Inverse folding.
């Protein structure tokens, strides 16, 4: 009888392990599906912005009545040829003198905060920081909360969330589906007084062009209570490149 019970217990443990593995696989698939949905949304937004830009350019062209006269400027080709010969000569002199041609540097940065309080965000949810203060190259989307890495390099990302008494939450900075950094905040007060604090995390990571970086609540611990956002204290997400 004891042997039978041991075998049954072992089978139950094996089944529990299988269930846990399947849960992890489901979480990974959920992450990948969410990223695909967000990417589609961002592409739609980019198309809308491109259409607006094209429309403005066409309107400007019509207003100036310059579209049909672009190639009619006399002497323009001769001037361009002179400028080009000058540039070629300068490059040749630089190479003779051994002066290196400077390599253009690339940079990007963003900073955004929440416009309103976030209540009971729950588990495994991307947080949206919809008020943009800095967004060089428009690499951060205030609609999805995602920063799209524009070029290979080393980046700094920082997170700061204002929470109050009765709040429990764990938060993650994620690159694609991999957690890069995490922070936790738990506030309980037996005195009846309101307590507030900033939960923060800063990371330095290598990233590849096209990677997606965002903030989300923990898949197991999640968040209950308030994430506050007003003039007394912001909840924010920021990042910038430091090496490429």
């Amino acid at each position: 009888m004891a042997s039978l019970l041991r075998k049954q217990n072992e089978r139950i443990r094996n089944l529990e392990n299988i269930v846990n593995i399947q849960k992890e696989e489901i979480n990974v698939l959920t992450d990948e599906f969410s990223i695909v949905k967000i990417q589609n949304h961002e592409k739609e937004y980019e198309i809308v912005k491109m259409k607006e830009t094209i429309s403005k350019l066409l309107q400007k062209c019509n207003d100036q009545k310059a579209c049909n006269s672009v190639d009619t400027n006399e002497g323009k080709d001769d001037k361009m040829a002179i400028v080009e010969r000058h540039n070629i000569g300068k490059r040749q002199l630089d190479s003779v003198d051994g002066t290196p041609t400077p390599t253009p540097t690339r940079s990007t940065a963003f900073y955004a905060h929440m416009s309103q309080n976030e209540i009971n965000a729950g588990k495994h949810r991307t947080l949206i920081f919809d008020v943009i203060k800095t967004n060089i190259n428009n690499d951060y989307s205030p609609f999805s909360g995602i920063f799209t890495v524009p070029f290979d390099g080393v980046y700094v990302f920082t997170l700061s969330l204002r929470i109050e008494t009765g709040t429990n939450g764990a938060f993650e900075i994620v690159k694609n589906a991999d957690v890069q950094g995490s922070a936790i905040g738990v506030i309980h007060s037996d005195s009846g007084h309101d307590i507030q604090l900033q939960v923060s995390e800063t990371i330095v990571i290598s990233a590849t062009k096209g990677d997606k970086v965002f903030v989300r609540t923990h898949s197991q611990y999640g968040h209950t209570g308030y994430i506050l956002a007003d003039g007394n204290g912001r909840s924010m997400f920021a990042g910038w490149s430091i090496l490429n």
